[in-house]
Give the backbone structure.
Amino acid sequence: MFEIEKILHHIIENPQICIAFSLSGLLFLYLLLGFNRKPKSLIGENVLITGGGMGIGREMVLQLIQHGCNIIIWDININKANEVVHEIKELNPHIHAYAVQCDVSSFDAVKTAATSTRELLKGASIDILINNAGIVSGKSIINLTEHDINRTMGVNYFAQCWLVKEFLPEMIERKHGHIVNISSVMGLLGASNLTDYCSSKFASV
């Protein structure tokens, strides 16, 4: 018992340890309560995903339609986005799926695409926003041009800001919505020929 009292006294006298224990307790409660929750139904939710025309974005789209989500794909490559929309309609003709061309690095382009999206949805709102679009140049810092760096930061980080600014106010007003920003472990590390990419992902993290 004396040892336990010494340990408790040591914890109380050290604020950093107290904070660590508090955070650990909160995490435990969150996990405990979270695991007991029923899965959220996504049927009929309108999901906007950037960069959904290929790669990870396309795979997420194909997973989401299995949960009954309607899909809006924003992609700079409209042909790829339309291919995925066609694929969705073949897999499940009851799902509403749309493709909108957008350079997400441009604030003005995001505003224009948002207007087009709202018209397609006939006034309905975005329930889930997934900021997935990303690019990588694969050049050394010496060989990167100003355009390369601006482009990487624009697509990988600033685009997330532009879309959150566009759709978050509606979610707050409706008290309904989710935002997912896709980042990368490279935002916490460094690697050769990925200076701009790592920096953009660090900003996202």
Summary: The chain is about 55% helix and 10% strand.
